[in-house]
Amino acid sequence: MKTTRLYLSNDTSSLAAGAGRLADAWRERPEIQLIRTSSRGAFFLEPMVERDMPAGREAWFNVTSDDLPRIVGGIGGTPVTEIPFLEQQTRVIFANFGITEPLALDEYQMRGGLKGLAEARRLSPETIIEELRLSRLRGRGGAAFPVWKKWQVAQQTGAEQKYVVANADEGDAGTYCDRMIMEGDPFRLIEGMLICARAIGATRGYIYCRYEYPAAARAMKFAIQKALEAGLLDFDDYPFDLEVVVGAGSYVCGEETALLESLEGRRGVVLAKPPYPAESGLHGKPTIVSNVLTFAAIPNILANGGAWHASLGTEGSRGTMVLQIGGRVRQPGLVEVPFGLPLRDVLDRFGGGMAPGARFKAVQVGGPLGSLFPESQLDIPICYDAFAEAGAILGHGGIVVYDRETNMVELARHFMAFTADESCGKCTPCRVGSVRGREILERIQSGQGAAEDLMLLSDLGETMKTASLCALGGRAPYPVETAIKHFGEEFRQGVKFTRPA
Amino acid sequence: MTTRGRSGLAESLEPCRPMPPDKPNILKALLAVQSALGHVPTSAISQIARVLGVSDAQVSGVLSYYSDLRIQSAGRHLIRVCMGESCMANHGGRVLRTIQDHLRVSVGDHEPERRFTLEQMSCAGNCAVSPTVMVDEDLHGKVTPSDVPSLLEPYR
Predict the structure, then answer these.
(1) Residue of A nearest to B88 (CA)
(2) B25 touches A at CB < 8 Å
């Protein structure tokens, strides 16, 4: 009997959407051969099953185990190139997703992988850094710092040992692209880290992966082993050691100095900068700490040239942005597009509008420290400059849509409580301010707010923004303040105004 | 601590003994202990500190800092309900309340028979398939309050 090759994602979210149940149900079926791939990120269509057809891959959506005869018969599939959610994207970093088997190094290579590394081995460290300068790549973890500047500092700082650290502590709620990269295209992260190591002269690397991502840590360990066996981790004159380290549940460990403290086994407490890690980081040595997505952007830049990367996006924001749409939208999923698309277009074209029965109230961009936008402000383009001008952040690309049933006072309280829980305690504005902020919001929520509470909250916010050591305390007031600014009536209802006699 | 607990502790600590010039890594040692014993009993702090050559206070400091390090063993199964923004937007709070009512257990606590421990988590990275409930390492997506009994049933 002829067996049909079917492709099914093995991504954690695909499994949560039912891909695991399908695989279990079909395991013993002789008429098919099931290939487990990464996910295309169109999670609203999952479980999604694909197969090769004469004109290319076709897909079946929201598949149940009863759909097998239809799929094997080739009936009712949609060409993958005609799925609007995917067809309108520019997949550069996520080009392999849904196509390859994550841990197959030969497939990675067949689709252009390792070209960037080969180029980097050929070039001098200075030339690699120059290529990155031309690319105008900025860090994708949140701070958006020019990548080449960090690398240049680390390269020029003399030391017998240097480190490369991938920040895989993806703590911003609403984001999952780092998890997808580690589970779905782990060799891309390894390649990006190796290029960095080659540029700055690092001999050791760590992937600091959060505790909540067990599948990602497993995939990375396996991929490192394969890379090692293939000789990828050997530079001409020295070997590069790469290791996965699992954290233990602390949001602030996504801040680079706290991450390095944690990597050394201490409390993950934020340190004052300077010195910056590029000069004095892990064990006091020059260290590049970058987000997983940043490292994953690098192989293409070396393979295609910095000018290619700089040709995508807007003036201050070059390349593509990976957005992760979640919350009350019809089509939650991962979207990679060049910078510059208005937020409204992202929500309409990719998000597909609101989930059935839900009505739009606000959208939050940039994770738990990101600002809230009401309907009237959705024309803002997705780029660093426009967001900075609006006092907002793109952060790690999380976009969460809230519906009319969302209570804004409860949401604001949630944000302050989150900061109070996760504050490392090093600086007073964050440690004490977040607790006082939460208390004030709890009073308002219970209808016991005093007349001056909103003013007090605003003053507290100013102090936290000005005087906190890192972005946790410094950004925590923004979602609360934007909630009050755009939905003030809900807050004023909880405040007992004192009237003049 | 039982005899078995003690030997498990010593064994799990052995690979964490610092080899000069490497400095001791307290977090790594605590995670190793937790992986062997299921938790890090506070009665083990002194022994951990001795093996690592650090003070008891340093070990306590790290142990109390990280939310995934536990000083009491969890129930046989750990339920973590995601309270990230996407899960909140999709009304994961209702799922959490249903689990609390169904098991008659509050967040951070376990049932008397220790089958389940209930906790919140701040994001499981499953935002596109939210709301999320994680039981041990199994991730369940698009969970509704009415799914709760059948979701928990297989965990015995």
Answers:
(1) A327
(2) yes
pLDDT score at B22 = 86
A401: distance to nearest CA of chain B, Å? 7
- A481 and A464 within one domain: yes
Chain B nearest-CA distance from A167, in A, is: 15
How does pLDDT run across A379-405, given as a tens digit for each residue? 999 999 999 999 999 999 999 999 999
CATH number at residue A200: 3.40.50.11540
Q: Which residues contact A133 (CB under 8 A, 6 or more apart)?
A: A146, A148, A306
- The reply to whether A480 and A437 lie within a common domain is yes
Question: Taking 50 as the threshold, does the pLDDT of residue A500 lie above it?
Answer: no
Regarding whether A357 and A276 lie in a shared domain, the answer is no
DSSP calls for chain B? --HHHHHHHHHHHGGGS--TTSPP-HHHHHHHHHHHHSS--GGGHHHHHHHHTS-HHHHHHHHHH-TT--SS---SEEEEEE-SHHHHHTTHHHHHHHHHHHHT--TT-B-TT-SEEEEEES--S-GGG-S-EEETTEEE-S--GGGHHHHHTT--
Chain B: give the shortest CA distance to residue A172, in Å.
7
Nearest to A252 by CA among A427, A400, A466: A427
Neighboring chain B residues of A327 at a CB cutoff of 8 Å: 85-86, 89-90, 127, 130
- Do residues B27 and B62 make contact, with C-beta atoms less than 8 angstroms apart? yes
Per-residue pLDDT at A501 exceeds 50:
no
Residue pLDDT, tens place only, A71-121: 999 999 999 999 999 999 999 999 999 999 999 999 999 999 999 999 999
Same domain, residue pair A366 and A416: no
Read off the pLDDT of residues A438-480 as tens digits, 9 standing for 90 and up. 999 999 999 999 989 999 999 999 999 999 999 999 999 999 9
Residue type for position A287: T
Q: Do A174 and B127 touch (CB under 8 A)?
A: yes
Domains within chain B, CATH numbers bracketed: 3-65 (no CATH), 77-152 (3.40.30.10)
> Could you tell me if residue A137 is left (phi over 0), alpha (psi between -120 and 50 degrees) or otherwise beta?
beta
> Which of A310, A333, A357 is the last residue before a domain boundary?
A310
CB A180, CB A97: distance < 8 Å:
yes
User: How many angstroms separate the CA atoms of B133 and A15, rounded?
Assistant: 13
Kindly determine whether residue A15 and residue B139, on different chains, have CB atoms separated by under 8 Å.
Answer: yes
pLDDT of residue A498: 58
Between CA A286 and CA A202 the distance in angstroms is: 9
List, for residues B1-54, the tens digit of each pLDDT value: 555 566 789 999 999 999 888 899 999 999 999 999 999 999 999 999 999 999
In angstroms, the CA B51 to CA B46 distance is 9
State which residues form the domain around A461.
408-492
